[in-house]
Amino acid sequence: MEREKINQLLEELKERTVIQISITKSDFSSFREVLVQREDFKHFRGIAQRDGHVIYEYLDEARS
Fold this sequence. Notes:
Organism: Jeotgalibacillus marinus
Strand order of the largest sheet: 1-3-2
Number of domains: 1
Order of helices and strands: HEHEE
Mean pLDDT: 96
Number of strands: 3
Protein name: Abortive phage infection protein
Shape: globular
């Protein structure tokens, strides 16, 4: 997955355009690399699913 696409998905989550995004196992590494560089990184919560998929949500309050 390309950086631009990842940033677009993360912004859509932040702006509440979408409620959740699903990331496949094959895209997880590139997605996480971009995610951890964001200042609002702790507002994103990943929920592990079967087969290595992860569903991400945006939280109003940052995780501790």
